[in-house]
Specification:
With about 160 residues, the protein is α+β, with helices and mostly antiparallel strands. The protein has one domain: Alpha-D-Glucose-1,6-Bisphosphate, Chain A, domain 4 (2-Layer Sandwich). It is built from three helices and seven strands, in the order βααββββββα. A hairpin with a 5-residue loop joins strand 6 and strand 7. Helix 1 crosses helix 3. The termini are far apart.
């Protein structure tokens, strides 16, 4: 059961970061190289507590579908999405946003998953999947950081 953790400092307020992370549209932009598309449930805008989204994407050359549901949310600090159906045996993805000063946020991302296929799945984790998922999530989070900082900068410029 690998657990992938990352932490990023974002030069934007907590609410801006929180909304960027639950944006279906930004998710699709950030995962464009896998062709990830929302095809069911919430397919655009901000996903809310109790809502689900079905993603279609190509990973390892195979078209896959995965449905995740928002199972916990404490706005603007925290939300959790969990797999309802898909290639994993299960996953729980926690997103936490901690204010650091007035306009900085520490984003903590924890992806806890179990691969299917028992021992074979654990071997695949060690050989390729854990590294692949670590890169995939980091690229997505760096994209969200860039977008949140740009949005905040634009908001500040409008105030002047």
């Amino acid at each position: 059961m690998p657990v992938i953790r990352s932490e990023l400092m974002i030069e934007a307020p907590q609410q801006v970061c929180f909304d960027a992370a639950r944006s279906i549209d930004l998710h699709m932009e950030s995962t464009a190289k896998t062709g990830e598309k929302a095809i069911g449930g919430v397919t655009s805008g901000l996903i809310e507590l109790g809502e689900s989204v079905t993603w279609e994407a190509v990973h390892f050359g195979i078209k896959q579908r995965l449905t995740a549901k928002i199972t916990e949310m404490e706005q603007p600090r925290f939300f959790v999405d969990e797999m309802v159906s898909g290639a994993f045996k299960r996953f729980r993805h926690e997103h936490e946003f901690i204010p650091v000063g007035k306009d900085r946020t520490r984003m903590l991302d924890t992806f806890d998953y179990t691969s299917p296929l028992g021992l074979l799945g654990r071997i695949v984790d060690r050989l390729v999947l854990e590294a692949y998922m670590t890169r995939f999530l980091l690229e997505r989070n760096l994209y969200l950081k860039q977008v949140a900082e740009k949005q905040f900068k634009q908001m500040e410029e409008k105030k002047v």
